Amino acid sequence: MVISACLAVGLAAAHAGFGATRPNAGASDSLARHQRPRPTAPGLPSNPRVELRFDPRFTFDSVAREMGILLPLGAPMPAVRVASMVSVKDFQNAVAGQWSPAPQVVSNVYSVAQNAVYLDDHAHHPAFGRTLDDQLAHEFVHFFQARYLGIEAQREEDEEQAVMIQLWFRSRHAGATGAGP
């Protein structure tokens, strides 16, 4: 089975104010401190995109805590890339060992070979109650499964865990509602 994917956005591997995490630590930090500023450009672009509301480091650390994974201080994150910044050819190359046949569009996945999360940042997600942030949380689960838990081939229960943490993140942090991932 394919380990889920995410798309490209360059980001810093560390964020000031984040340190080591503890298993099941409470999310006592102010969420406002971790929210990313929203663009203020007037009007919508002709091909609207959604953006991450939270710093990816916050999402990364939150997922690790929820999974009970103790991260070392400054643990590196996978690269995060969004579809609007990645060519289909580059995406196909990134997931060549995981997907067959080659995908024709950039979609959500964690690429083990590239150690990168790819995210589809097209604006259709809110219509389904999804956010880009909860989808990033889903893909971070696959990162932790592969890099910290040694899961090489995704099983049905691994995808179920990713969906459950995605829904947890959505309800706890993203404020979106919706039935599915």
Task: Present the secondary structure layout.
Elements: H1 31-34, H2 56-67, E1 79-82, H3 88-94, E2 109-111, E3 116-119, H4 132-147, H5 156-174
Parallel strand pairs: 1-3
Antiparallel strand pairs: 2-3
Query: How far is it from the N-terminal to the C-terminal residue, by CA?
Result: 18 Å
Rg computed from alpha carbons, rounded to a whole number of angstroms: 16 Å
Q: How helical, in percent, are the residues?
A: 25-40%
Mean pLDDT: 74
Number of helices: 5
Number of strands: 3
What fraction of residues sit in β-strands? 5-15%
Largest sheet: 3 strands, mixed
What is the level 1 CATH name? Alpha Beta
- Report the CATH architecture: 3-Layer(aba) Sandwich
Structural class: mainly alpha
Explain what the structure shows.
- The protein is mainly α and 181 residues long.
- The chain has a single domain, classed as Collagenase (Catalytic Domain).
- Helix content is 32%, strand content 6%.
- The protein has helices spanning 31-34, 56-67, 88-94, 132-147, 156-174, and strands spanning 79-82, 109-111, 116-119.
- It has a three-stranded mixed beta sheet, with helices on one face.
- A hairpin with a 4-residue loop joins strand 2 (109-111) and strand 3 (116-119).
- Helix 2 packs across helix 4 (132-147) and helix 4 (132-147) packs across helix 5 (156-174).
- The longest helix is centred in the C-terminal third of the chain and has 19 residues, at 156-174.
